[in-house]
Amino acid sequence: MRNDPASTAAAVLARAGGPGNVTSVAHCMTRLRLGVADPAAVDAEGLRALPGVLGVVTDGAGVQIVLGPGVVEEVTARTEALVREAGPAPAPPAGPEGGVEAAAPRREATPVKALLRRVANVFVPLIPALIGCGVLAGLNGLLLNAGLLPALTPALTAVASGFMALIAVFVGHNTAKEFGGTPVLGGAVAAVVVYPGVAKVTAFGVHLVPGQGGVLGALAAALLATRVEKWCRGRVPGALDVLLTPTVTVLVSGLVTLYGLMYAAGVVAAAIGTAADRLLATTGPAAGLVLGGLFLPLVMLGLHQALIPIHTTLIAQQGYTVLLPLLAMAGAGQVGAALAVYVRLRHDVSLRTTIRSALPAGLLGVGEPLIYGVSLPLGRPFVTACAGGAAGGAFVGFFAMLGDKVGATAIGPSGWALFPLLAGNRGPGTAAAVYGGGLLTGYAVGFAATYLFGFTGRSRAAAST
After folding, report:
1. Band of the pLDDT at 88, cuts 50, 70, 90?
2. How would CATH label the architecture of 1-88?
3. 115, 240, 244, 445: most buried by Cβ count inside 10 Å?
4. Hey, which residues does 66 pair with through a beta bridge?
């Protein structure tokens, strides 16, 4: 029976230190993400014990509660309502010197991990639009190739492409919001990146191209705008703040974006595309093995969302990201491992019930239920699942080295849900065949590795009784 979202939200908040301890509420496809004022007040073990909670990830400055697709949206809405009703969170306690005394768990978050978390917070809210527009783009491509509904395809092109054409604005808005600036100013400065009139501007001896630098340029522009805005707020008299601060922020940040950031971000974006192509063309199987094998630990730590800027940059450059199909093989290894556990531990009714309920989500690329409910608690099956993902990634990477590139036109789905978004240099049919072969390889190796090596002597004996 499905848990009541309101009850789950209340229980989560109680174990997160209460509504007053929560400073921010957000979610991605499967996780409720809470920012907390005092990390020491979070009862992580209590959260893990709640019905319906598939896993918990603490990152020093917050906590991520894995709830699964569909459920997370409802629980997030209830959680936001409860936090609003409780009023604003209190300020952290001051230390003996008058400054803020950080709790011990907060110091565990390294600067790099904290930065990756904040970058993920910029891009995670964009995933639903990326998925929706990507699916429509794939459908439109099929109609165009088949010559069907010619009167409809121009409209579908506009609907599917509009968001991607202006994604820089949304990135700028979210960046300013995440880093403490005014969101609309971040969006205004980032809009410079995609404004058609930049083609008349010359920087470093060459004309700029609208969209040059893509989301990386928009991210840098909005970060600069936030810094300029904060500098102005501390120096402009209150009576002139409403007039001068926005003007100076847009002017300074916009000019720096035009005459520096767009060019630099364009160089970086081009380097990312070139590196991805060369990596697969020269070391395809090895690259696929590493990427497919290491992605599950990234998902477990909640750091996989930090790869979104790279995916988005590749989609803007090439029309698809060649990295996502490789990373998606980790889910195939996880499914194979879960099936092996189901076969070997046939007397563990509770675990087999968990696998049956989580397996459909795993086949569609949502791996957290199987990770936190099956493989990670057992230990060895998590490692053998990574082996399956590595094998699937090596399979796809091998064909990429032969010249058959497989990419995804949008990010978010994986597993079988990625098929409508597949594209490649040899057409969607070849891309689907290579990707499907990679999934089957991941399933088979994940199953075999787990069946043969995923259990200790004691668990083997228990499975045979």
Report:
1. low
2. 2-Layer Sandwich (3.30)
3. 445
4. 31, 55
Distance CA 418, CA 95 (A): 51
Checking 242-248 for CB contacts under 8 A at 24+ apart, the result is: 246/182, 246/185
pTM of the predicted model over 0.85:
no
Q: What pLDDT, in 10s, does the model give residues 182-203? A: 999 999 999 999 999 999 999 9
Give the integer Cα–Cα distance in Å for 109 and 216. 24
Contact between residue 101 and residue 95 where contact means Cβ atoms under 8 Å apart: yes
Q: Which two structure tokens, joined as six digits, stand for 384?
A: 């053998």
Domain range list for the chain? 1-88, 125-279, 289-464
Rounded-to-integer distance, Cα 189 and Cα 220, Å: 10
pLDDT for 104 equals 37
Q: What is the mean pLDDT of residues 334-351?
A: 93
8 A C-beta contact, residue 190 and residue 166: no
Rounded Cα–Cα distance for residues 11 and 53 (Å): 11
**Residues 6 or more apart in contact with residue 171 via CB below 8 angstroms:** 122, 123, 126, 190, 215, 218, 219, 222
Per-residue burial over 214-234, b if 16 or more Cβ lie within 10 Å, else e, is: bbbbbbbbbbbbbbbbeebee
To the query of whether residue 28 is one of the catalytic residues in this protein, the response is: yes
Q: Please, what sign has the CA dihedral across residues 7, 373, 305, 30?
A: negative
- Band of residue 99 on the pLDDT scale cut at 50, 70, 90: very low
